[in-house]
Amino acid sequence: MTLLGLLSYVDRSVLAILSPTILSALRLSATQYGYAILVFSLCYMLANPIWGLWMDRAGLWVTTLIAVAVWSLASGSHGLLMGFGGMCLARGVLGFGEGATFPAGLKTVTETLPAEKRSFGLGIAYSGSSLGAALTPLLITPIAMRWGWRSAFGITAVLGLLWIMLWLWLRFSGWYAPGATVAEVKPTETGESRWSRNLFAAAAAYGLGAAPLAFGLYAAPLYLTRVLHLSQTTLGHLLWLPPAGWEAGYLVFGRLADRRRQRGASRPGSIFLLLSVAGFLIILAPLAARSAAPVAATMLLFFLQMFIAGGFVVFPLSDGMSVLPREHSAFLAGFCISAWALATGLLMPLLGHLFDHQRYGLTFWLVACLPPVGTLLWRILASSPRTR
Fold this sequence. Notes:
Layout: H1 2-17, H2 19-26, H3 30-58, H4 60-77, H5 84-98, H6 101-112, H7 118-147, H8 149-172, H9 197-209, H10 212-226, H11 232-238, H12 241-262, H13 269-278, H14 285-289, H15 294-323, H16 329-356, H17 360-381
């Protein structure tokens, strides 16, 4: 699952990392780029619960195999882009296929780990995504600089084929035994249905709390080029830093969530509030750009922003796992990711418009205000389960 997340974020990050070069080559604006991300996000939003439901019924192995085959072909097709329409189509199919990534990770965790280790296990499984986002600029930028940006997407298709070969080997070698389908799982006594207030509470905290990840993943390359005037080659040396903060957030907050569970701590409302307040550090980015060390100061803020966002991934899912039925774990992940995809899809065209009008300070205020809204909605929606 770690490798699955890594592959997923390599595939989706290539366009963002090379966006200054690609937008220039295809004569596209940042607003059009934002709409392409919107198409990806909407397809991703719709696909997550669909893949989650399919996994809960048909099993993890075959569902994940089909999903990776679909998104690897879509990722490779980016190398054939000729304009805005092609970019939207390729991003849409990619988004639909990648909707299986996080439901697969959470389902694996709930099927293989005891309750007191699941949050850190979730951090391990999901850390592949942040690791992939961190490694992609180091891997892809030299390839794009030497052989052109189109060749970089061919590499992603090859990586997908290698992952599929590994997945097949794990199954047929006997190392991986498929888990039970939902019909074979004894229902849990949580007192919660699949559609409950706690499901929507988790989705609100995740979707809006982790929305700042969208800036770090999709908008940071454009900001660094347009405001700090960094070259595409320099970006390749720097863009691993924000995802490294995301990676650290998964592991740190995953361990913290497990310890809180072992102590019988209350639900994480206070954690969400602290993370929301800390997220306002990002509004200092315009000051950092005018400091004596603008690049270092800006990258530190981006690192911290994504570290904090990692907490808004781990804690809502950890809390959801504790109060919702285990047999619907993949659906829980899919529904929460769909909320994040919706928030991202609506946010990116707006950020692109603000970028085209050079209103960068307002973008940081907008990004910082989303987690408090998610925290407020969580407090309104969350309810205590009848039994724990």
